[in-house]
Amino acid sequence: MPSQTVLLTCIKTITTLINHKDKLKRSDKTLQAIQRVGQAVNLAVAKFVTVGEAIANENHELKEEMSVACIEAKRAGETIAQLTDAASLDHPEPDSHITIFTDKTGVVKAARLLLSSVTKVLVLADRIVIKQIITSRNKVLATMEQLEKVSSFQEFVQIFSQFGNEMVEFAHLTGDRQNDLKDEKKKARMAASRAVLEKCTMMLLTASKTCLRHPDCESARINKDGVFHQMRLALEQVIEIVTDSRSNGEDELASISIYSGIRYSELKLLEGLRENLYFLPKENLSTMLEIILEHTEDFTDSAYTSHEHREHILELSKQAKMELEQLVSVWMQAQNQKTTDLMEDLQVAILKMCQCMNELKRELHSAATSLAADLLKYHTDHMVLKALKITGVEGNLEAIAEYTCKLSEQKEQLVEMCRLLRHVSGTEPLEVTCIHAEDTFQVTGPQIISAAETLALHPSSKIAKENLEVFCEAWESQLSDMSTLLREINDVFEGRRGEKRVYLSLPRPGKHNANLKALKPVRLDTEEQAKIAKLGLELHLLTSDVDSETEKWEDQENKIVQHVQGMSSMIFATEGTKLASAFHSFSDQLHDDGKPLLLLEAEKLIPVCQQLQITAKASVQGKSATFTKVDACIQKTRSVMTLLRQLLPLCCTLLRKVS
User: Fold this and answer.
1) What is the pTM assigned to this prediction?
2) Are 111 and 80 contacting, i.e. CB atoms less than 8 angstroms apart?
């Protein structure tokens, strides 16, 4: 909420003031300083209360509680202002006016009331935010159910437009919530879920269109169902994070990574070494070591771990067991005989145990990162994806089967790589990123296969080809992100990155890696983001409509079709002018009533394309000007695509008449 930070800072200042050990002197400087603090607190409270009251008016079920808390906060703020008023402090009336000089208790009481009431307002506001997110999620789910059942493209476009608006609202609510989260692991999990939802929105569009175009195609249905399932899982994870609950009852201890387990063990050992050697938690250490060694089997059982790494890991695991047995043995003796020699032996046993665990950690890190580096280098050319696209367009089902097997093998390798990297990630946010990457490869692989099979069955289908492209891009994007993730894991291991640093590999909705360093970020407010996102979705739907119209033309080599396809691919400046010329050439073949209508609509195309070109080339600076330019470009692009959507069916009809 606004003013919250200022308010808490002011309260801290008051607390410092009233807790000062020395008696306050009534100098002009002191009086003015006290009054400024009091006024700042009162002003911040007033702003805070205004927001709280607005929230109360919009949420009737909590209005009474919120109003009471706001009244208490306002009263406390006014009291603090009165107690710190310079006139009263400088010339207090005897026995009639309590000030900070005469009685600190009044200020303490007012400050406590203020803290209490502010806390109530924040808790109530938090409950409202959680409710808003859950309500937004429910709206998204309801619209998704409608999208699953649609049978016509027109109906789909209408419902998807509504779905887009609801997803934008959900993205804003969860984005604000993500920024408010203090737990880095929860923040990373929220970012991962939101990234999945953003990618899936585009996947849902192309997968659903493909299913509508080819309703009897089983692979298209499987592809679409996979996207819906993935979105539902991501929505549920967001709610788990927001409500701080886990629906699957996950055992946190069993799911801990090797690094986290080793870090916990070392902390306990060093704590015992520093504080009290007699109270080492040996049961906890034994359990933790057992879990750590169980997880090392992920490395030793992996087909992708080298023989050398496997042997070293097994040897160090065996040594760790022996060191723990020795540590427990010395500890048991020390319980009975508290001699200096035994204390020294216990210290040595602890240090040897820590050293062994560090060696194991280094070996695991080397095994995971060397495997990752090799796999990323090997798969960087995306040859399998390229082959699937080519053989799909050729309709070669036999070749598709061959390359889907290769993609499945690649998927297994990358999933194993992510699993091993997670164990050595070093921080909780990076651990979450590894899990997110593993899930992405696990899910996207089969979706690429079903999309490729659909294209092979319908090789001339433009939407099936576009659908395969979307899933391949998701795969390529995740593979690219893995290089950044690997570099950051190495940075953490070598001590070049702290816990609180920003990780570039963390999933972020709207992230475009190619432009990450070149672009200077501009923060849009909620209304601006909503407007741009809505326009973007509408533009994509218009593009889909135009693509659908071009597919209806029997002659795909027709100049009109070619220029429209060029514009649909975002090459507006030259293609728009050429298309207008093509419309004029076509009109020369016409002799019926359709010719004037065609020319009338075609004439509108040239000025709109020219305006778009001028706007796009205009140089701007600053957030407001940038937003205005982007908004104008999208609006003009939408106008062009709307014109095309009207012109294409008209041309198609007129072409049949003259053929």
Assistant:
1) 0.70
2) yes
